[in-house]
Amino acid sequence: MKKYPLSKTEYGIYIEQTARGDCAYNLPFLVTLPDDVDFNRLETAVCACFKAHPYLFTSFMVDENGEGY
């Protein structure tokens, strides 16, 4: 896994999240789909979205010194 330093913006978000302990930048919600949804097409669309926006695969970690990367 490659490690990259946080940008100034990412670092600010990291500090705010650490201090507040909330998930202001992680907004989970539930969507109820109709019974006739085509799950194969939905899966294809979601996968295409992730492929078009690779930053959606980003994970923020903390090293042994407590620094985010």
Structural overview:
This protein is mainly α and 69 residues long. It is 39% helix and 0% strand. The chain has two helices and no strands. It has helices spanning 8-20, 39-52. The protein is elongated and about 50 Å long. The mean pLDDT is 85.
Task: Provide the fold topology.
Blueprint: H1 8-20, H2 39-52
Q: Please give the largest β-sheet.
A: none
In helices, the fraction of residues equals: 25-40%
- Tally of separate helices: 2
Q: Uncertain regions: pLDDT < 50 for 5+ in a row?
A: none
Radius of gyration: 17 Å
The SSE string, one letter per element, is HH
Tell me the β content: under 5%
Q: Overall mean pLDDT score?
A: 85
Compute the separation of the termini in Å: 12 Å
User: How many strand segments?
Assistant: 0
| Structural class assignment | mainly alpha
In one word, what is the shape?
Answer: elongated
Could you state the oligomeric state of the chains shown?
A: single chain
